[in-house]
Amino acid sequence: QTFIHPKGTSNFIIRVTWTPESCSMDSCININNMVDEEMEAQDRSATNDDKNCVLIPMSGSVLATQLERLCACIAEHVHLASQQMFKVATMIVNFKIDTEDRVWLLWCEQLEVTDDQGRLLRSTQAETKNIDDIDALDDDAPEEQEAPKERARRGEGDG
Q: 119 and 83 in contact (C-beta within 8 Å)?
């Protein structure tokens, strides 16, 4: 990993909450100057604490439109890469703008997907099923289902 130097004098991220029907975004801005060496580096760069950061809603800008389009492209990629078996229902993604006005995807904070029937998949289902086995998902499946690979690793078969 490498630190992406932000545009401007303060560190910030843009947190985008995206669904197919809506998109909202907030800029999480650190109130401290990045070059103020009298402060600890953590205090100058953190974008996730109430002490050093402010949250400002964003809307109606060229950047907001660009970020919304990027999220739609990510959702479309998930859909196509899953052989059209998964659709993104909700995602929260964090972006940053660098000193050269480039947009960086930092991390995805939350990703909820639906199957090809529109059913929201629980993380246990999504983690334990191979993409080839997705048609076998059952609404009555147990809450905690162990992955077949994990059982095989321990030497426990299905039969």
A: no
Distance, in Å, from the CA atom of 3 to the CA atom of 17, rounded to the nearest integer, reads 23
Q: Are strands 53-58 and 23-30 parallel, antiparallel or unpaired?
A: antiparallel
**Under 8 Å between Cβ of 96 and 1:** no
This prediction's pTM:
0.73
Looking from the CA of 90 toward its CB, the CA atoms found within 13 Å total: 10
What pLDDT tens digit does each residue of the chain (159 aa) get?
Answer: 789 999 999 999 999 999 999 999 999 999 999 999 999 999 999 998 888 999 999 988 899 999 999 999 999 999 999 999 999 999 999 999 999 999 999 999 999 999 988 899 876 544 544 444 544 444 444 444 444 445 455 555 544
